[in-house]
Design goal:
mainly alpha, 7 helices, 2 domains
Length: 187
Amino acid sequence: MAASGPKPPSPQELALADAEHLMELWMLTRQYFQKANTEDPITREDEQQFLEMKSDITKYQRTVTPKMPEGVSYGAERMTDLLRQSISISHLRGLPKPDRVALIITWHSVFIQLTRAVGSLKFISEGWIPRAQQKTGGSNISDLKKAAGKKTGEKAAWTKPKFWVIVVFVIVGGWFAYQRLQSSGIL
């Protein structure tokens, strides 16, 4: 009986390996962003490595995206936008501070999505089968209002003139009823 070789990796394991490598490359991006926020000299090698890293990230995006299961995303669009805006380390350093902060915030949101995707792929590669997600109403304000039966943009009742007219009539009617009962001696 011939001994069989090692079992080839499953498609889920291949997707996980690619996503983990993409995560490593994404962490390198953060280091270059941090270097752009310092006064350390930027060498030609640094710029070349930055450009190669951007190219590698783009290659891995093309391999990871089709391997992602339905419902699992890693922020590919935002990642691409961020890389497109990051021309070089020198360019990043020359940006105004609010723009650099915005890029770091975008980097972090992609990092969170990528971490979630890698975690999901780990569960899937261990045999977990994700359930199909049902579309729920959502939790933002407009969804909650719709679920409560209100139309989005509808004013509160107390801001409408009709409400105040009714309130005035009730108060005036109550006052007349009180006066009548008092003059008849009931009160």
